[in-house]
Amino acid sequence: AAAGARAVDVTSAQGLLLKFEELPVLSGLRLPMVMNIAARAVSAPLNIKCDHSDFLHTLGTGWLILLARNVQEVYDMNIIALKWAERVSLPCLVVYDGFFTSHGTRRINIFSKKEDVRAWIGPKPPRPSILDVHHPRTFGAYMNDDLINNKYQLNLAMREAREVIPGILADYAAFSGRKYDILEAYRTEDKPETTMFSLCSAADTVLDAVDRLREQGEKVGSITLRVLRPFPVEEVAKAFEGVKTALIAERADQYGGPAGWITNEIATVLQDRGNNCRLLTRVYGLGGIVFTWQDAEKLLRQALAAGRGEEVPKFDYYGHWPGTPEKLPTRRFEPEQPQDFVVNEKLGDR
Prior knowledge:
Elements: E1 8-11, H1 13-19, H2 23-28, E2 34-39, E3 64-67, H3 71-88, E4 92-97, H4 114-121, H5 147-176, E5 183-186, E6 194-197, H6 201-215, E7 220-225, E8 227-229, H7 233-239, E9 245-250, H8 261-272, E10 278-283, H9 293-307, E11 315-317
Parallel strand pairs: 1-2, 2-4, 3-4, 6-7, 6-9, 9-10, 10-11
Antiparallel strand pairs: 3-8, 5-7
Helix pairs in contact: 3-5, 6-9
């Protein structure tokens, strides 16, 4: 990216953590690039399956963040991400669920001609390059007290990104026929008092649970985001108007924090607008535990119970289970001893 290339990377979990040192470098140098994150659990213990404990650590690094719910959206978001990144000179993450989406087998629509995609994205905007020997520059040099000015410029770039993304999404809808909104609210036209908020592939699962509960006469809805950074304050505030109880499903825990990663951000928006919606946080699906419509229905029922005044924990895990002491592993053989390897020699001679 520093050499002027259109760079795309893919990583997850410990790989993302290994790259973490460079994330604020790329945003601080205003280098546009795209990095895919097939979100997976962070060790330890070792687990290579899906949760969101990796990418949520990037929220404060100055990267734009797009979220994809399915395979088609991964394809589309990568195209959108490059145009957006180059428009505001910031790097962009495209996040989707590891294995559930990254290894999903689905029929998708793709463009038949690369030239059409390149034309929609447009030519690379001019920017300084480390390979320009005729106009040599220093990149990332030490800054004294004026570092705050650089960071303020980064803040302004995020504000600009917030302003231009609706237009980019609208342009892509006209170009591809596939419409994506910053926030998607499902069955909220009648202003349900109970809703569930989720991200990535779980959001599709929640739709089934909402439909089933609606058939049973329960007035519930669903909210999800496709843009996480910059955080869509206005859209979130509007989506939660009239909501009395919301369950925020988080596929990661912010250990020791007052609530979950996303719950804290939603709470900040609602408090600022004077919305006293009760927020429940449920940490679910860690380490790739499958999240079904039955699970989503159980969580929505917890929110409905809270709305009726029943005692429901504000924060809890969903899907964990107690250990079984009788299943502790037993020793199958005795460990080898030093004398097992000593030949024609007495122990202690050396």
